[in-house]
Amino acid sequence: VQLVESGGGSVQAGGSLRLTCTSSKLIDVRCGFSWHRQAPGKERGWVASMNTGNNVAYKSDVQGRFTISQVYYGNTFYLFMNNLQPEDTAVYYCKASLVDDDCDYQFGQGTQVTVS
Fold it and tell me: Could you tell me the CA-to-CA distances from 42 to 10, 38, 55, 103, 105 in Å, in that order?
């Protein structure tokens, strides 16, 4: 695994967290990158993404509360989460492709976010 998420934790409703995705190698921004989450008893689903043109897209229920960042230092991007709600409780995963991987995406191992 070459992507590592961090920044999860337990917060009260209305709180904020910043998730970080860091890679051991350079991220290929031409392939785009994204955040996903898996709530208990549910399948993993898409949350937010940024494509090669820096265009962003968000799942409707996080629009206006979550912000995906660009890639910094060539290997790090973030998910800023505000006004968190209990329904945001999930394991959050970043997804990206590394340089020379021909857009062969991979996920990190995930970070737990719990909102009470």
Answer: 20, 6, 28, 26, 22
Q: What pLDDT score does 1 carry?
A: 64
pLDDT band with cut points at 50, 70 and 90 for residue 108:
very high
What residues pair up with 14 in beta bridges, in sequence order?
none
Nearest to 115 by CA among 49, 39, 64: 39
Ramachandran angles phi, psi of 62, nearest 5°: -115, -10
CA distance 108 to 116: 25
Spatial distance between the Cα atoms of 75 and 22, rounded to a whole number of angstroms: 6
Rg of the chain on CA atoms, in Å: 13
In 3D space, the residue among 3, 5, 2, 10 whose CA is nearest the CA of residue 113 turns out to be 10
33-38 vs 45-50, strand pairing mode: antiparallel
